[in-house]
Write a structure and sequence with these properties.
By secondary structure, this protein is an all-beta fold. The chain has strands spanning 17-27, 30-42, 51-55, 61-64, 78-83, 90-94, 99-103, 110-120, 129-138, 143-144, 147-149, 161-162, 169-175, 181-185, 208-218, 221-234. It is rod-shaped.
């Protein structure tokens, strides 16, 4: 308190919530002739920051703990509302930890955005709120089939990569379990697929697991992270 004996006293460094001040008046020897209480409420508002997320593949789930980078210090009870929720894909709110979850549609590639607002419901006077924007970029990176049948002339004998569209080119490298290169293509085309041979037209490889690295490019700029996984080559069963 500054100048507490003045009718125009000044208070600083108030705490969040109710701050009570008592003025007492003394008249002569009567040191408590009168008293008055003034309560000043300091309402603390949330301070939110924008959030950005990425989804590498369309089947991946974006778990968005949007409050992690927000300042909610001193707030006991907050509520969350949102607007502009995406209509494509599966969007849901998780009440338990006040987070969001989003799964994109199978072939969707692009950016979805929405806004959320946090309010201090414990406020005694107004209801202080703040808002922030959330964006999710869906790369929908290419994904290969999990396996193929050696020496099968039909579609089961080819490696198909889903999601080639929308990229300048897609590069794939396949190695065996020892890390030896067995196939490489800097611009994969499903119309001229790999059939489990060494190189382009070499002998068929032994059945088993092989390991790929796929990179997608947009105007020679790498999009997202390189995708890795296993491709299984199966021996064709005799009829």
């Amino acid at each position: 308190m500054q100048n507490p004996n003045s009718p125009n006293a000044t208070a600083q460094n108030l705490g969040t919530g109710a701050n009570r001040f008592v003025w007492r008046i003394a008249i002569g020897r009567c040191i408590q002739a009168a008293a008055d209480t003034v309560t000043v409420f300091l309402e603390k508002a949330p301070q939110l920051a924008d959030d950005k997320y990425t989804i590498e593949r369309s089947q991946d789930i974006a778990a968005m703990n949007i409050l992690l980078n927000d300042n909610l210090a001193g707030l006991q009870d907050t509520t969350i509302t949102w607007s502009g929720a995406p209509t494509m894909g599966n969007f849901e709110f998780i009440p338990g930890n006040k987070s969001f979850r989003y799964t994109a549609e199978a072939d969707f590639k692009g950016v979805i955005e929405f806004k959320y607002t946090v309010c201090n419901e414990a406020s005694q006077c107004a209801t202080p709120c703040d808002s922030a924007n959330v964006s999710v970029e869906i790369f929908n990176l290419p994904k290969p089939t999990e396996g193929l049948v050696l020496e099968d002339a039909g579609p089961n004998g080819t490696l198909q990569i889903r999601g080639l569209q929308g990229y300048s080119r897609v590069d794939i490298v396949i190695t065996n379990r020892w890390g030896d290169l067995v196939y490489k293509n800097s611009s994969y085309d499903n119309a001229a697929p790999w059939r489990g041979q060494a190189g382009d037209n070499g002998p068929y490889l032994p059945p088993g697991a092989y390991y790929y690295v796929i990179r997608a490019y947009d105007n020679e700029s790498l999009v997202g992270k390189p995708q890795t996984g296993a491709i299984y080559l199966f021996k064709k069963e005799n009829p």
